[in-house]
Each structure stands twice: as C-alpha cells, then as structure tokens.
Amino acid sequence: MPAHRAPGQKPIIVMMKEEFVAEIDGNLGKLGYGDRASLIREAVIEKMIKLGIEVPKEFSAAPSRAGKGGRPVKYKRSKKSKTLPKKKI
What pLDDT sits at residue 2? Predict the structure, then answer.
C-alpha cells in the first residue's frame, strides 16, 4: 500500500515549479539516477557534507522495500496453440 511506510521512514514533501521538476526528470538518466528521490536524497546529503555536517553512509541508501510487495507482474499469453501437436508414428 503506497500510504504505508516501514518504521523509521518519513515522507518529505517539497514544492517545486513544474518546469524544474520536468528538468530534473529529463536529466535523471544523464545524471546517473533511476528516480527523482535518489537524486534529491543525494543532493541533500552532499549539501550537508559541504556545510561540515557528518552524514552516516547508510543515510544515502534508499529505505528498504523488502516485503512491501510491488506492482503485479503481468505475463503475456502466448499466441501459440495450447494443445500439443500429435506425434506421427
């Protein structure tokens, strides 16, 4: 369920102009990120380190999603016949 978080996790809402979000999204791959949250998390950590604040390494990792489920996997059905061909003897 999207609204449920594991203990110790807290969502943070950051308001940004749509153009800025589009710029971030358009450059994620070029910057080496798979998602917006990873980029933002790392940018905040980088800023804190620049300001002389010690940040534990494990803070840069995304929170674990183990056991949280995910999107259901959809398998494509084969267009081939479901019956086995008869062998000629």
Answer: 56
